Design the sequence.
């Protein structure tokens, strides 16, 4: 089983946005990243797509969800500041590793960075860079009910 942990795509300058930050959408670069993401992971057998309620997160994984014939389900665990709960979600998903499907989670830099840090402390091997750029993906591989390795995928070039 794989868990694809996606950081939302480019969404402009947070400080220039005049509204609730959860409503800030992807900018044109972020929209291109979302489309490229759907293409890059088209062969993954995605069965579930969960996202922070932030519009930019939902928009990032919407093309991938549509390609798989799925809806994007908002999950409060993936919102900014939810790193411990997001880690618990990943651990719960990993225990259900008898399936070959992939689950997609879209979240924010703070959540993903902390989650990965904690996974590495438990011995999860990582391959590639250890980044968390906007539009990037961490592909987590699960075996025996635990996350065993993570591979970083740079943001797709749009």
Sequence:
């Amino acid at each position: 089983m794989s868990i694809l942990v996606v950081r939302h795509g480019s969404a402009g300058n947070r400080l220039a946005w005049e509204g609730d930050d959860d409503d800030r959408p992807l900018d044109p670069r972020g929209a291109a990243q979302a489309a490229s993401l759907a293409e890059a992971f088209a062969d993954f057998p995605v069965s579930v797509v969960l996202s922070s309620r932030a519009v930019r997160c939902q928009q990032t994984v919407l093309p991938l969800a549509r390609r798989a014939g799925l809806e994007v389900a908002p999950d409060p665990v993936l919102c900014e500041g939810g790193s411990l709960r997001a880690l618990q979600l990943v651990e719960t998903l990993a225990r259900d590793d008898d399936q070959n499907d992939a689950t997609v989670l879209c979240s924010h830099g703070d959540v993903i960075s902390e989650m990965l840090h904690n996974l590495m402390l438990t011995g999860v091997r990582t391959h590639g860079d250890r980044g968390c750029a906007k539009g990037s993906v961490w592909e987590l591989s699960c075996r025996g009910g635990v996350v065993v390795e993570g591979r970083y995928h740079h943001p797709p070039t749009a």
Q: What stands out?
A: The beta strands are 2-7, 46-51, 73-74, 102-107, 125-127, 137-143, 146-153. The chain is about 35% helix and 25% strand. The first helix runs from residue 28 to 40. The chain has a mean pLDDT of 92.
